[in-house]
C-alpha cells in the first residue's frame, strides 16, 4: 500500500512540470490568438470598404478595354513608322561625291590617285593666288600720274572732252564687270560742288553697262569707259567737261543737277574686276 501510494505521488510529481509547461503554452497561444483578433478588428475599422464584385468586374472590364485601346494605338503608330521608314529607304538617293574626278581616281588607283588629284588642285589654287598678286603688283607699277606739261585735252564729241590725270595699269573696263569709283561732280553754272565721294571716302559701286550708266554720270561719259579709243583701266583718273544730259544727274544724298547744265566730273576707277561666276 505504501509503495503504491509512493509511486502515485512520484508519478504526479513527475508529471506536474509537463502539465504546467503545457498549460503555460496554451495560455500563450490563447493570448496570441486574442491579439491577432484585436489587430484584425483594428485593420478592418481603418481599412476602406471593399468594392462589390460587380464594381470590381466592371473596373476590370474597363481596364481591359483601355489596355486594348493602347495596344491598338501602339500598333497603328508602329505601322505608320514602318511605312515611313520603308518609303524613306525606297526614295533615299545615294549621296554623290562633290568631286567626281576625286572619286574616280580614288576608286581606280586608290589613295595615291586621290592624293595626286589633291596636289593638282592645290597647285591650281596656289598658282591663281600668285597670278593675282602678280597682277596687283603690275597694276601698281603701271599706274602712273601724267605730268602737267604732258596733259592734253581729248575731245569725245561736241559737248564732251576729258583730260587724263592718272593712267591706269589694271583691268580694262568691260561689259558686266564690277566697278568702284570716286566721283566729284561740279556744277559749272553755279560754281559749286554737287556731289563728292572723296569727301566721305565712300566710292560708288556698280556693274558696268554701256547702255545703262549710273545716275551720277552722263551717258556719253559712261560710254567712253569701254570705247576702244578712250578705254579706261583700273586706277585711271580723268576730268570730264560735259553737260548733265537731257535727264540731269541724281545723287544718293538727294542732291540733283538740272538737265543740260555744264558740269565738270572728276572720275577715278578704284576697282575693276571680273564678276564671280
Task: Name the features.
elongated, Chitinase A, domain 3, 277 residues, 8-stranded antiparallel sheet, alpha+beta, 19% strand
CATH topology of the domain at 144-273: Chitinase A, domain 3
Secondary-structure arrangement, i.e. CATH architecture of the domain at 144-273: Roll
Instruction: Report the CATH C-level class of the domain at 144-273.
Output: Alpha Beta
Gross geometry = elongated
Count the E strands. Answer: 10
Question: Mean pLDDT, rounded to whole units?
Answer: 75
Proportion in β-strands: 15-25%
Question: Main beta sheet: strand number and arrangement?
Answer: 8 strands, antiparallel
User: What is the N-to-C order of secondary-structure elements (H for helix, E for strand)?
Assistant: HHHHEEEEEHEHEEEE
Give the C-alpha Rg: 54 Å
In the predicted model, the low-confidence regions spanning at least 5 consecutive residues are 1-23, 43-48, 51-55
Total number of helical segments? 6
Helix content: 40-55%
Instruction: Report how far apart the termini are.
Output: 143 Å
Based on helices, strands and strand pairing, what is the structural class?
A: alpha+beta
